[in-house]
Amino acid sequence: MSYLVLSSLLFAGSLLAGLLGALTGLGGGVVIIPLMTLAFGIDIRYAIGASLISVIATSSGAAAAYVREGYTNIRIGMFLEVATTLGALGGAALAGVLSTGVIAVVFGLVLVSSALQSLRGSHDDSGALRPDGAALRLGLNGTYPLEGRRQPYNVTGVAPGFGLMIIAGGLSGLLGIGSGAVKVIAMDRIMRIPFKVSTTTSNFMIGVTAAASAGIYIARGYIVPELAMPVMLGVLAGSLFGSRLLVAVRTTFLRRLFAFVVFVLAVEMIFNGITGRI
Amino acid sequence: MTDEQHTPAPDRDEALEAVLGNLLRIGVFVAAAVVGAGGVYLLITRGDWIPDFRSFQNGGSPLRSVPLILRGAFALRADAIVQTGLLLLIATPVLRVVFSLFGFAHERDWLYVALTLIVLSVLAVGLSGLQT
């Protein structure tokens, strides 16, 4: 396959991945890495490098739109970025010592848990009932647009949420994904942040988290410009389109769609990791 | 300035949000333009190349430090131009954090100034390997 054909196919696949990633707030990486390794046989370390670049583009491109719509809580974002960037450095260090098969299996397991989590019932957007002391001190409570006015919400579970975000950052640095899945779980289910606020704030944080480990990936030679170019441009175009659809699409539909795609990819990644094909 | 530094009124961050939104958009646009230009050049000059990315041979991409990447870009090497765009992309969220620092300082929210400085230090550690 010539480079022209390979980059065209990668661009098309990344376009779709970027669309899905923006719509679910989970980043394009969860679809790109299986695409590159399973469909094109590319070394998983190159795939991780390209994906890491693409999630920075996804995050920053979509975040620009979300921030202006008033869903993103930049205080929650900055507070939790302390956890995710620290975790990302640890994850990037681990990526240098683990074998590709082990990375593929861990990747698959993360995808399975993301799929299962997103199927586990619907989440009510009422937020925490009572204001939490830590959340008050940190100024994490906020408002978001709902039916033409600003709906206030409270945040809870600050300490366990922060802890889980260190793990989310670690997975991001290890696997080259935004690990928006883990972030949304921490922010939705533990901190009780309304879905669209947690989705957009999680998306806002992904770029910074990925940037923390991207330097390490470039320094190791994992980021190949020939592969990162079509992936980044495709994801960016897809995510910009997806971010415009977000407000119009129902969140339950998004979760089911995402869960299905991710589950299928996860099983393939685990199988290939165990049988040594990756 | 208010007495309750950490219970901001609704919509307090609107000005900062607008600045950050614009910064992200411009950063991504410039990075994408550089990557796109380098990419077109790459496809024109090496479109018929049969690449092999199946394993991490030869230690990966040689373009792995800022001086090497910029030297290549000034010599108009297509792959180095793309890599320069990728550096600009990585710089975008980092710049966003720097701008947040100014924003929080302007609001005299010293707790968030401190948190932002911690995030910047961690980013500096991660990016320190790109110097040489």
Describe this structure in words.
Chain A has 278 residues and is mainly alpha-helical. Chain A has helices at 3-24, 29-39, 44-69, 74-95, 100-119, 133-137, 158-175, 180-190, 195-220, 225-245, 251-274; strands at 142-146, 149-153. Chain B contains four helices and no strands. Chain B starts with 13 loop residues before the first helix and ends in a 5-residue tail after the last helix.
Tags for this entry?
heterodimer; A: 278 residues; mainly alpha; 11 helices; 74% helix; globular; B: mainly alpha; 4 helices; disordered N terminus
Describe the structure concisely.
The complex is a heterodimer of chains A (278) and B (132). Chain A is mainly α and 278 residues long.
Summarize the helices and strands and which ones pair or pack.
The complex is a heterodimer of chains A (278) and B (132).
Chain A: H1 3-24, H2 29-39, H3 44-69, H4 74-95, H5 100-119, H6 133-137, E1 142-146, E2 149-153, H7 158-175, H8 180-190, H9 195-220, H10 225-245, H11 251-274
Antiparallel strand pairs in A: 1-2
Chain B: H1 14-46, H2 66-74, H3 78-106, H4 110-127
Helix pairs in contact in B: 1-3, 2-3, 3-4
- How many E strands of chain B? 0
SSE class of chain A: mainly alpha
Counted beta strands of chain A: 2
Q: Point out poorly predicted stretches of chain A.
A: none
Helix content of chain B: 55-70%
Question: How big is the Rg of chain A?
Answer: 18 Å
State the helix count of chain B. Answer: 4
Q: Report on the biggest sheet of chain B.
A: none
The major sheet of chain A is characterized as: 2 strands, antiparallel
Quaternary structure: heterodimer
Q: Could you give the order of the helices and strands of chain A?
A: HHHHHHEEHHHHH
Percent of residues in helices of chain A comes to over 70%
Anisotropy-based shape of chain B:
elongated
- Beta-strand percent range of chain B: under 5%
The mean pLDDT of chain B is: 87
